[in-house]
Design brief:
The protein has 13 helices and 10 strands. By secondary structure, it is of the alpha/beta class.
Length: about 375
């Protein structure tokens, strides 16, 4: 993802979002269809017709991806897996799962429904295309329907490749999981295949670029990098869930965090804290009690000439649920909160007492150490 996604609408309780990168993709697809594909197959149409067909094809792609991801989400909900949003980004779409499926059957059903839904959409588009041709519908309509037919068939076929995190890779993981009864091992194998497939796509993209097909080659190169990165991160994610699910927040927190008194000026705060520690947010204490939080983005909105007169306590905000967590919470819940909010540090609070700070940096260091031990075990 490239930034905070934009919320579009909610359907069946799932929030549909779009990353700004997908807007770039939509513009590129519209241009590609209007200036390349449709003029090649449907000649002698007005230029405006090609652009309308390109826009319609892009909207069809948008709806096809949402339908594909929505079926994943609905089946996941059926098996008790928490999925609250679907995000479109430059390489397609993703239905974000907050947890792993409970068993291999759930993994298989959640994965297989995606390609089946795309095949279904391809069949529906073909039926309407056939009806349109038989009844003399405008070529601008039948052309778009024909495109959507093949688009969904290709989307389904590509997703069935047994390379994690594609749907085919998840189907493979479900089979390995059922065989070995070990989701970590199954994820590792499927992710290694996915990583290799991503490398293959990357090499293929380089070959296309060298042969002069720069746009197509660049596209395959970027998709390959994404698939490889997503495959490699999938094993780290499941290892993190296993590791942090067994630990409490209090086991990982730093017990003597940097705190800021309410009484100092913003000028002192910047000089003595921001320039020294470089954090984005700081807990504010008064007589040992947590009274609020101060964020760097607040300071940016205050004129510099007022820093000497304004106190930290005057501008501090309440510490909300996005930046706080209880000491008895599972550490994986903290990681989930960090991922959702983008905050890399959480205040560990018990009522109005600040017990410590939980840092993503410290959690990742522990995870890295765990992975090193795992790698040593594999090499023995």
């Amino acid at each position: 993802m490239f930034g905070r996604p934009i919320s579009l609408f909610t359907i069946f309780g799932f929030e549909i979002k779009v990353d700004v990168s997908w807007l770039l993709l939509a513009a590129l697809i519209t241009w590609s269809l209007a200036s390349g594909l449709f003029p090649e197959y449907y000649k002698n149409l007005p230029q405006s017709a090609y652009w309308w067909m390109g826009a319609a094809g892009t909207v069809g792609l948008f709806l096809s991806i949402i339908f594909h991801e929505l079926t994943h989400s609905l089946v996941a909900r059926r098996f008790g897996v928490s999925m609250k949003e679907i995000t479109l980004f430059i390489f397609g779409g993703v239905a974000q799962m907050n947890e792993d499926p409970p068993h291999p059957k759930a993994e298989f059903m959640i994965a297989v429904v995606g390609p089946l839904s795309s095949f279904f959409l391809g069949l529906v588009a073909y039926l309407f295309y056939h009806i349109g041709v038989q009844n003399g519908w405008p070529v601008t309509v039948t052309g778009v329907l024909n495109y959507l037919c093949w688009l969904n068939i290709v989307l389904a076929a590509f997703n069935l490749i047994p390379a994690f995190p594609l749907d085919g890779g998840r189907i493979l993981r479900s089979a390995l999981w059922r065989w070995k009864k070990d989701i970590r091992w199954s994820t590792d194998i499927a992710a290694q295949i996915g990583s290799g497939f991503g490398l293959l796509l990357t090499i293929m993209g380089i070959i296309y670029i060298v042969r002069g097909n720069f746009v197509g080659g660049l596209w395959w190169f970027l998709i390959g990098l994404f698939v490889r990165s997503a495959a490699q991160s999938s094993y780290r994610q499941i290892l993190a869930r296993d590791l942090f699910h067994t630990k409490k927040v209090k086991d990982l927190m730093v017990t003597n965090p940097v705190t800021v008194p309410r009484s100092i000026s913003l000028e002192e705060f910047i000089r003595d804290y921001v320039y020294k520690y470089h954090f984005q947010a700081y807990p504010v204490l008064s007589f040992g009690r947590l009274t609020g939080c101060i964020f760097l983005k607040q300071i940016a909105s205050i004129p510099r000439e007022e820093w000497a007169q304004q106190t930290v306590g005057a501008v501090a905000l309440p510490c909300n649920n996005e930046i706080t967590i209880g000491p008895e919470e599972d550490a994986d819940k903290a990681l989930e909160l960090m991922n959702k909010t983008g905050n890399s540090r959480l205040l560990v609070v018990n009522g109005d007492e600040l017990e410590g700070i939980l840092s993503l940096k410290d959690m990742l260091a522990l995870l890295s150490l765990k992975m090193e031990f795992d790698d040593l075990g594999k090499n023995k």
